Amino acid sequence: xxxxxxxxxxxxxxxxxxxxxxxxxxxxxxxxxxxxxxxxxxxxxxxxxxxxxxxxxxxxxxxxxxxxxxxxxxxxxxxxxxxxxxxxxxxxxxxxxxxxxxxxxxxxxxxxxxxxxxxxxxxxxxxxxxxxxxxxxxxxxxxxxxxxxxxxxxxxxxxxxxxxxxxxxxxxxxxxxxxxxxxxxxxxxxxxxxxxxxxxxxxxxxxxxxxxxxxxxxxxxxxxxxxxxxxxxxxxxxxxxxxxxxxxxxxxxxxxxxxxxxxxxxxxxxxxxxxxxxxxxxxxxxxxxxxxxxxxx
Length: 297
Description:
Layout: E1 2-6, E2 16-19, E3 30-39, H1 41-48, E4 61-62, E5 66-74, E6 86-92, E7 98-106, H2 113-117, H3 120-133, E8 140-144, H4 149-160, E9 164-168, H5 174-179, E10 183-185, H6 191-198, E11 203-206, H7 213-220, E12 226-228, E13 240-241, H8 248-260, E14 268-273, H9 277-286, E15 292-296
Parallel strand pairs: 8-9, 8-11, 9-10, 11-12, 12-13, 14-15
Antiparallel strand pairs: 1-2, 1-4, 3-5, 3-7, 3-15, 5-6, 6-7
Helix pairs in contact: 3-4, 3-8
Subcellular location: Cytoplasm
Protein name: NADPH:quinone reductase
GO cellular component, one term: cytoplasm
């Protein structure tokens, strides 16, 4: 079996395509023949050796949390899924030809493997940070770094719940944000004043880690109304850093419902071959993403 792995922490050049033993479905798990794997910022953060308590790493290590594919092994005690089912979900070492999933759901009709692979961690994260920041229907949520996968999900889920959203992104993604129902502005000089002109900010999310925590606290008036998933220094300013996943099965259930009702769509900006994992990490780290990046296996 081919998989992507790394034997030392470092830049994207440490990623290698290696031959490895196939994993097998233990009790409560399923194995899939991977068709596509999601590329998430947490993947390259782990590869770089950033201290992420929810994801301890023992080298050498595989890469990837999200995947979509076809079930080919069902572990003891698993019900409701059969060999041959098309599923998407979260597991470990998903940049591979086979991967074991710990949480999964059947893919909604009409969704490709490439599209499905981009949803699991993204939707879980979006649901979690909306809950943690405490924003309510009728209030306004500011999303810094809104055009990526998590931002795209946050904007759509928040709008579905009756929350007004303001999103910041690069100039090229302004129309994209507006298409998702957000009030949009760029993040270059003068962005704080432009946000103020768009309306009162009740809560804010930092999804890009671009050094804007102080400004988000200023705009909300309270560090407890700001949550970051990207700035490990946020707690020094009294802001919560959210890095521990909630219930992935519940997130997948909600994702299936939203997708099936046409309320959630995250485009795939680019699909890469498994051999292009390093390039996918380089592009993901550079930001400016519109939607998701995935690997096709």
